[in-house]
Amino acid sequence: MGVNGKMKRKDWEAQPHYNAENTLLSADSLLVSESPLMVLPSLALAVGLNGALFLQQLHYWLRKSPHYHEGRTWVYNTYVAWREQFPFWSIDTLKRTIHDLVEQGVLLTGNFNKHPMDRTLWYSLDRDRLLAVARAALADRLIGKELAVAAKDWDRYGTTDGPMDGAEEQP
Asked: Are 158 and 164 in contact (CB under 8 A)?
């Protein structure tokens, strides 16, 4: 113990530690012992990392859901229940992530509760809109790369067409 009654860092690090599933924490358990949240980089590029994590988890639950309304499959959850699946997010981060996905049009929300006082939201995925958003993000990235090459060519050659016939490339 330190002078102020707090444990010194080296003493704390020397003690065993446990993860949320109450298993002994080790480098291996940090990497493989829990059910992972996976995300494709192209999805993260399209909707942001938080949005991609949320949509991937929603996709997982939609595949298991028996609830079908308005021609699509839905799942319902409270913010607290979603936070249990994303313990590294605050409720505010979760609300922002959901709001952003709804604003992009890829996440649909509804209320199919039996009791009018129940305000639990239901969630579904607009797959067509998601594809459109992903294609737009990819196009923006490709256009951005093309613009970067064009700008580099302009700086080097005074044109966006690269070196003129017979002109030598300068280092």
From this structure: no
Q: What is the number of helices (H) and of strands (E) in the chain?
A: 7, 4
CA atoms within 13 A on the CB side of 21: 11
- Rounded CA-CA distance 115/146 in Å is 54
Given a cut of 60, is residue 8 above it in pLDDT? yes
94 SS3 class: helix
Instruction: Tell me if residue 109 falls in helix, strand or coil.
Output: strand
pLDDT in tens, 44-61: 989 999 999 999 999 999
Q: Write down the pLDDT at residue 120.
A: 86
Count CA within 13 A, CB hemisphere, residue 69: 15
Provide, for the chain, the percentages of residues in helix, strand and coil under a 3-state DSSP scheme, each rounded to the nearest 5.
Answer: 50, 10, 35
Starting at the edge strand found earlier in the chain, the sheet holding 107-110 runs: 67-69, 72-77, 121-125, 107-110
Q: What is the pLDDT of residues 111-137, one digit of tens each?
A: 888 898 888 899 999 999 999 998 888
Q: What is the pLDDT of residue 80?
A: 94
What is the number of residues in the chain? 171
